[in-house]
Specification:
six-stranded antiparallel beta sheet; six-stranded mixed beta sheet; 6 helices; 55 strands; about 10% helix; about 50% strand; disordered N terminus
Length: about 750
């Protein structure tokens, strides 16, 4: 075969393939269906203390039947030249369709017998429940527990020195901490249930993010080379961003509503700018059409669609909003699925994506299988396989080989498979999971793609990645190596003995059953041979990489930390990167990254259990929240000397779980009072509430256990602690430790 063609085809198949099994064959529908959608409004209802209700309807963009024609324009963005017409997007997708089809075909199971016989926009309602009260100012006010100081993260509870805002289900409650009343309720409603994902507070703006299961999807229906035609599709997902002016918290005013097709991934708030990341499938598996994102009922401009990956699977939509003047910008990047995001104070946004899937692994394994099988095929079969390979039709080549081997006697088939496995072992064929990072630069509402890099291993969470001194990026991954062998399995199939058909008819609680006998056929045993690749983890280890952000190259690394274990927690504190791994004992690693080109382990601490969240405390201490033998474990670590770290104090609570193990937003640290508050479910949920943990320099203690069903979050304003559940807000005095009041959420 032509080696050059083979290599090029192999590279094209391997690079960047992320193919969901369900996408089906992809084509462009030439059907010309136009739809029109009834006008939608956002309704603001305000109820005054005298129960006089006024309603204001705000019309939003009406989706209607239309065609969009865009002049083809080329532009260059950070080394990527993109044709920004819709026809250019279609051409790009069509060019990748063949490779996607090949991968799908290769992924199909092969079994052979030895001798075969030839929605409308949501309605947002704000209700005022109390009269206006006095202003309030406190010295100490809590904020959402976030990774990067100054970069806020979406959460279900927010507060300032006057109000506490709580989002539960489809409602958002505004609680006045002085009046001690729910003063406003915002209802996010539609024809189907909506889910409020979380909220932001910025000065006098409240941002509410909701998801809706019913939207209108914009599709590319091929009419001519430049046109997009509108088509209605129900039961998909949209992300809604509602912005309220709460200068008067008793009368919230909706000032902006942005609806974006796709699923909410994550977001960040930096100064006055909010950035939302939304993911939307490029391909429609149902009717094999290409689709494009829509913003407020209109197809996103083609110049705002940027192909990045060779074989993209989703639009990664980044919406940037200026919360002062309410202007916004949206870009749709054609990439692979994102999993985690990170944003720095240096105007960089990172989106992490698993770079290799089991589909790609299957594809690569099949190509190796084809290559090593050629020596065991008859000349006529080998020629057919080579011809398919020359044409890039690997799925057909694979099908021919598996069909031939499966048609042989089982012992002969097994012998060939064993020989192929020996060759795979000789070349040490391995699969290692990888993570791909896309980097975007943001400047206000301007967004641009900066570049990308890939590292070995998979990412645990956002704390495993962080910027270092503006110029470098550190990332920790758990690296899993898998070996590959093929297995030939023989199945003996015997026709069933019971060949009757029973028909049961029931009416008015009376049932009759009729049995129809089927004439028996000779019960001859048939054998089925199945050939499948088997992947098994050979080893795990953990790696730390440091990336030069100017050139996007790796400048430092630590490989094979804690072999056989995996990462459970990470945290960067100044120039020390702390890493927790676990299998049998809990190594807390302290890694010096002051020299990015030469990271080194300063020390490690082995203790029982593991921490799933690390929080830095003053005085060179770390608070760890994790598990040990089924018990919730709170640890206090002294890390003043990273070479000789120690666990100075622990609290273990048996049969207890906390949301803080999975969501760092559930942790409240009040530095001014040396306490930490976390929600807990004790005794398998028999006792629920919040535990207040006090800490000194080297000691932990339990200050108080607060009963509160369905605990979610806690916040503080001055000397008052507000514990929040799905049904109520409780107010505790932190000086007296007494419950002052409970306010129900209706």
């Amino acid at each position: 075969m032509n080696n050059k063609i083979y290599i090029l085809a192999l590279i094209a198949l391997i690079i960047g393939i992320l193919i969901p099994v369900s996408i089906g064959y992809i084509g462009i529908s030439k059907e010309q269906r136009g739809w029109s959608v009834s006008p939608s409004t956002i309704t603001i209802t305000t109820t005054t203390p005298t129960l006089i209700t006024t309603t204001t309807s705000i019309p939003i963009t009406v989706t209607k039947e239309y065609f969009i024609t865009v002049t083809s324009v080329e532009r260059e963005e950070k080394g990527i030249v993109t044709n920004v017409s819709y026809s250019g997007i279609i051409e790009f997708l069509e060019n990748s369709k063949r490779v996607i089809r090949e991968a799908q075909q290769m992924m199909m199971p092969r079994h052979y017998f030895p001798a075969p016989t030839p929605r409308p926009a949501p309605v947002v309602t704000a209700i005022s429940l109390a009269k206006e009260g006095a202003t309030y100012s406190a010295i100490d006010v809590s904020h959402t527990n976030v990774q990067v100081e100054g970069i806020d993260e979406l959460d279900i509870v927010k507060n300032n020195d006057r109000i506490v805002v709580v989002s539960i289900g489809s409602k958002v409650y505004i609680f006045d901490a002085i009046e001690r009343k729910i003063v406003s309720i915002i209802n996010i409603t539609s024809t189907t249930p909506l889910d409020v994902r979380g909220i932001y507070l910025y000065n006098n703006k409240l941002v509410v993010v909701s998801s809706s299961p019913q939207i209108i999807i914009q599709r590319i229906l091929l009419r001519d080379s430049e046109s997009v035609k509108n088509n209605v599709k129900r039961d998909a997902i949209t992300t809604n961003i509602h912005i309220f002016d709460i200068s008067n918290v008793y009368r919230p005013i909706l000032v902006k509503n942005i609806s974006v097709s796709g699923s909410y991934l994550d977001s960040r708030l930096s100064d006055r700018y909010a950035y939302f990341i939304i993911s939307m499938d490029i391909y429609s598996g149902e009717d094999n059409e290409y689709i494009v994102p829509i913003i407020n009922g209109e197809a996103i401009d083609s110049k705002n669609i940027v192909p990045i990956d060779n074989l993209p699977t989703v639009y990664t939509i980044i919406v940037a909003i200026d919360l002062e003047d309410l202007k916004y910008n949206a870009m749709a990047y054609m990439t692979s699925y994102g999993s985690r995001i990170y944003m720095s104070r240096n105007n960089r946004l990172y989106i992490a994506s698993p770079a290799t899937t089991f589909q790609e692994l299957y594809l690569n394994a099949s190509i190796k299988f084809i290559e090593f099988s050629l020596d065991y095929l008859p000349q006529n079969i080998s020629n057919i396989v080579k011809e398919y390979m020359r044409n890039g039709n690997y799925s057909k080549a694979y099908e021919v080989i598996v069909g031939y081997i499966s048609s042989l006697d089982y012992d002969k088939a097994k012998s060939i498979i064993n020989n192929i496995n020996s060759k795979l072992n000789e070349v040490k064929y391995r699969y290692v999971d990888k993570t791909h990072f896309y980097i975007y630069t943001v400047d206000g509402i301007d967004i641009s793609y900066r570049g990308s890099f890939t590292v070995d291993g998979s990412l645990l969470d956002q704390f495993c990645m962080e910027e270092l001194d503006k110029s470098f990026f550190i990332v920790a991954t758990t690296y899993t190596e898998q070996t590959l062998i093929y297995e030939a399995t023989k199945y003996d199939i015997v026709p069933p003995f019971d060949r009757r058909i029973e028909i049961t008819i029931c009416s008015d609680s009376n049932c009759t059953t009729t049995t129809i006998p089927i004439e028996s056929e000779p019960r001859t045993k048939t054998s089925l041979i199945s050939i499948t690749p088997i992947f098994s983890p050979a080893s795990t280890a953990n790696n730390v990489y440091i990336i030069d952000l100017e050139n996007l190259i790796k400048v430092g690394e630590l490989l094979n930390l804690a072999e056989g274990e995996r990462i459970y927690a990470a945290r960067l504190v100044k120039n020390i990167f702390f890493l927790v791994t676990f299998r049998q004992v809990d190594p807390l690693y302290a890694i010096d990254i002051s020299d990015p080109s030469n990271p080194k382990v300063l020390g490690y601490l082995k203790i029982p259990g593991f921490s799933e969240y690390l929080h830095p405390l003053p005085g060179d201490r770390l608070l760890g929240i994790g598990l040990e033998d089924g018990a919730l474990k709170i640890s206090l670590f002294s890390v003043s000397d990273p070479i000789k770290m120690s666990e100075t104090s622990t609290i273990k609570i048996s049969n207890t779980w906390s949301p803080a193990l999975q969501d760092h937003h559930a942790v409240t640290v009040y530095l001014g009072r040396n306490i930490t508050v976390i929600p807990v479910y004790m005794g398998y949920g028999a006792k629920q509430g919040f535990i207040i943990i006090n800490y000194s320099y080297n000691k932990l203690g339990i200050d108080q256990i607060i009963d509160h069903l369905n605990p979610l979050r806690s916040v503080y304003i001055g000397s008052e602690l507000f514990t929040i559940s799905s049904t109520s807000i409780k107010i505790y005095n932190l000086d007296s430790r007494n419950l002052e009041e409970e306010i129900k959420l209706s």
